[in-house]
Design a protein that fits this description.
The complex is a heterotrimer of chains A (222), B (134) and C (316).
Chain A lengths: L1 E5 L2 H8 L4 E7 L2 H4 L5 H17 L5 E7 L5 H4 L3 H4 L4 E4 L3 H10 L5 E3 L1 E11 L2 E6 L15 H4 L26 H12 L33
Parallel strand pairs in A: 2-3, 2-4, 4-5
Antiparallel strand pairs in A: 1-6, 6-7
Chain B lengths: L7 E7 L18 E7 L7 H9 L4 E6 L10 H19 L6 E5 L5 H18 L6
Parallel strand pairs in B: 1-2, 1-3, 3-4
Chain C lengths: L7 H7 L4 E6 L8 H10 L5 E4 L11 H10 L4 E6 L5 H13 L4 E5 L20 H13 L16 E6 L9 H11 L3 E6 L3 H13 L7 E6 L5 H10 L7 H8 L6 H17 L4 E6 L6 H9 L8 H4 L4
Parallel strand pairs in C: 1-2, 1-8, 2-3, 3-4, 4-5, 5-6, 6-7, 7-8
The chains are: A alpha/beta (222), B alpha/beta (134), C alpha/beta (316).
Amino acid sequence: MIVGEQKSIAEIREMIAPYKKLLILGCGTCVKTCFAGGEDEVATLASALRLSLKKDGKEIAVEEFTVERQCEDAFIQEAAPHISPNSAVLSLACGAGVQAIARRFVKVPVLPGVNTTFIGVLEKQGLFTEECSGCGDCKLAPFGGICPVTRCSKKLLNGPCGGSRNGKCEVSPDIDCAWQLIIERLKILGQLDHLRDYMPPKNWKTSHAGGPRKLVREDHII
Amino acid sequence: MADQFKPEIAVFHCINTFADSAVLPIAENEHFSVKSYKLPCSSMVKDVYLLRAFEAGADAVLVFVCPEGQCRYVEGNIRAAKRVQFVKRLLDEIGIDARRLALFNIAAGDAAAVVEIIHQNLPELVKLGPNPAA
Amino acid sequence: MNTETPSHLQKVLEAGYFAVTAECGPPRGGDPDAIRKKAALLKGSVDAVNVTDNQTAIVRMSSIAACHHLMQLGLEPVMQMVTRDRNRIALQSDILGAYSLGIKTILCLSGDHQHFGSQPDAMNVFDIDSINLVRTVWNMRETGQDMSGFNLKTPPRMFIGAAANPFADPFEYRVIRLAKKIDAGADFIQTQCVYNLDRFAQWMAGARNEGLTDKVHILAGITPLKSEGMAKYMAERVAGMDIPDSVIKRMAGVPKKNAAREGIAICLETIAALREITGVRGIHIMAIEWEETVAEIVAAAGLLPRPAADQAEGVL
């Protein structure tokens, strides 16, 4: 799923300062599962903001609403009656959702309440890890199913570098050295000799480096 | 003592710590008032309930759970503790003193302990003063 | 063995001399005088000098410019190039520019992550990795083509180096990795500095077993220790560094004012031991901000005089 983290109260306060009537709009999919912007988080944030503003002697009317997904028009439409009476929308969706709301409701300022970070998995309860950078040209097979583009801090295809320490990346001891993981996995698979194969430079055209991407499925367009 | 500030305390508890506020030995002339909220499991102290208690005017919010290792639902009291920690950080961010929110472990059914703990913490709560966002 | 290039370091190695290289970090400013000062300390004691490329991701004068200044002083540079900061377009462009300035030896590296440096907010590049870079320079030399397949007018013919760390994790993979760098086109290897001779000897034995020491010139890294503090810092904080307790104890066991002497003594013992290991073709002395010791170490190790340009010439 897409993972993100709610912004700090301070940063949100700064963004919403000009507005007296605010709608906090949550999303029931990715950001709900990483506890950044689902219905519960909308409620908590609304309460926190009311307390925060009241404490400073300021008034704000905060409405709360959550849609299933903010990345699909059919669901976004349901928010319309909640958006129109308010002067701004604080969307707790991922960056894509925030933009979808802004695209559909052009006359109202749409503010991001979440910092969208990565595509990842739930490794265990409460722990989300980045796994995919959306390079558009998936080559997981020779690496035992571990992505060196995403999980190696240097995107090395012919790794490892000389900086790992006790199986952890030089950037942080919280980061596993992806190449250590790849080597161990290939050992289990009996494919360690594959690592002697030269991996040519990656074609980044399919990644974001080639420009923002689009997918058109004609077979679904009537 | 008449004009001393009388803190309004919101008490969250699961029904295994004590049944409900009726059993709390709170005297007539106490220097605090209690509004209690009972839950089927202490892990049900959702972040938003704790915050809404402050929105509703509580000067302090106290959460009572069973001792560690004795939760009827095994992890309820641990989850409650984690939520209280999370909301304390949020209170700091908001600028409301996080000491207004606290969690206490009491033996199951020990309603007297609740009042004792309130008495013990009362001087500090009085010092903290009324809820700045009330 | 390897294709002939105009590199002096290649000539020295292939003439059979035990090579000596050292390192020079460019200044954090625009004045070439700092390089001149370091060059003066190293001249005559080394066959070539590595010039680092924004090492530890700290912004310094570019390697290519610093190499150029070194050459004006009569020293042969080894231009270090990392893939952290430049994409394949810029890297190839700089290789052409370097060659046009007379730079003939290159060391290809990935580079320390920018998180360590003076600009941790920067975007990194890592468009290609160090092994891709080795292959790229090799292709330019052997086929005359750049990465797009374009036939370069006057393709650069450089002597190609890569780094190796016999002490990094995972140990059993380190010889495979060496083989990979050689397959990609590396002519010479400079290793991380050696303190743990047993482990280094093990790695060299592995390299010999795979026939790798016949295919590549290995120069062992050497860094003289200045103090017990330095030894401990490197052991604990620098990734891929292996400093045995016995070495730290030696540094701790002498009064502070004698620590540097002890460090140099350990250094000389290490060099003597390295010369006995088959397949070690030279040393690479990294005496960062202590360049004045290089001349002393090289002299005391009996490695003077260094072969002059014409002495190594014509042997290929």
